[in-house]
């Protein structure tokens, strides 16, 4: 009886990098497909930038004069600017699941799922596309903050790291939105849940005020909130506030991976 030849171990080793490169290529392809949609509605980038600008110009400058929130030697507007960058990314990403439900209703999602690409590549592509969309808002907030006199760093490496933090944070929250979409299956339900959890996520973070002044129960929620670590990393990079970068980036990376896994597992429910 003949025995099928077994591939040498070197072939197995060579196949793993190829598989990884193939997966990254498919993730990049899905990401580019998502970003091409912006060409049909470029006004979205402008309209979504209005709210964070209002937070900086109105809320930030008003509370800077009241001096009601203790931020140490850091001016409140400087303290607030990184939090508004994280907030703008959150507000964009948390409703990203509505788009995937629309694609389900239009029959696009079914066509995407029958391709040989793994579902995780599709979800990751959409997640990182949401992150890239938020980069434009982060740039707008940084420019407006600089015009308002906020002391920001202009170190190119730190600014690049800021964009990485924003993309990771948006990737997680867009995956959270897609996970909820896989559970509720309807746009109106997702819209209601998104509106219900957006402000609690924002206020249960260090975006507006230090964790030290929070009540004990809110401190627990804040430490479990990925937005807190996103804000912490942004403050460290932009205004030099001390932080643990290993913890901040570690939480954001783990949260993004966990979000991709959860959304991928529920993607099939949308296609039924």
From TrEMBL:
Domain of life: Bacteria
Residue ranges of domain ABC transmembrane type-2 in the record: 43-270
GO terms classed as biological process: response to antibiotic
Entries under PROSITE patterns matching the protein: ABC_TM2
InterPro entries: ABC2_TM, ABC2_TM_bact-type, ABC_2_transport, Nod_factor_ABC_transporter
Major site of localization recorded for this protein: membrane
Localization (cell): Cell membrane; Membrane
Membrane topology of the entry: Multi-pass membrane protein
Transmembrane segments: 84-102, 135-154, 160-185, 197-218, 245-267
Keyword annotations: Antibiotic resistance, Cell membrane, Membrane, Transmembrane, Transmembrane helix, Transport
GO molecular function: ABC-type transporter activity
Cellular component per GO, a single term: ATP-binding cassette (ABC) transporter complex
Family: Belongs to the ABC-2 integral membrane protein family.
Protein name per the record: Transport permease protein
């Amino acid at each position: 009886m003949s025995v099928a030849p077994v591939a040498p171990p070197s072939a197995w080793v060579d196949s793993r990098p190829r598989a990884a490169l193939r997966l990254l290529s498919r993730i990049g392809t899905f990401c580019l497909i998502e970003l091409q949609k912006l060409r049909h509605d470029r006004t979205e980038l402008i309209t979504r930038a209005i709210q964070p600008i209002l937070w900086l110009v109105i809320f930030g400058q008003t509370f800077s004069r009241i001096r009601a929130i203790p931020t140490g030697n850091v001016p409140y507007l400087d303290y607030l600017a990184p939090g508004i960058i994280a907030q703008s990314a959150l507000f964009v990403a948390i409703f990203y699941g509505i788009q995937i439900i629309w694609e389900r209703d239009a029959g696009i999602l079914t066509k995407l799922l029958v391709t040989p690409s793994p579902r995780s590549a599709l979800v990751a592509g959409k997640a990182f596309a949401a992150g890239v969309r938020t980069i434009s808002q982060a740039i707008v907030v940084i420019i407006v903050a600089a015009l308002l006199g906020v002391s920001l760093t202009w170190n190119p490496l730190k600014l690049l790291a800021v964009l990485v933090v924003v993309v990771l944070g948006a990737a997680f929250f867009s995956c959270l939105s897609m996970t909820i979409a896989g559970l509720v299956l309807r746009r109106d339900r997702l819209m209601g849940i998104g509106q219900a959890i957006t402000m609690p996520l924002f206020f249960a973070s260090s975006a507006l005020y230090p964790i030290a002044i929070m009540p004990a129960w809110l401190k627990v929620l804040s430490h479990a909130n990925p937005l807190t670590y996103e804000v912490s990393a942004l403050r460290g990079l932009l205004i030099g506030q001390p932080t643990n970068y290993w913890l901040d980036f570690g939480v954001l990376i783990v949260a993004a991976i966990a979000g991709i896994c959860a959304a991928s597992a529920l993607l099939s429910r949308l296609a039924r």
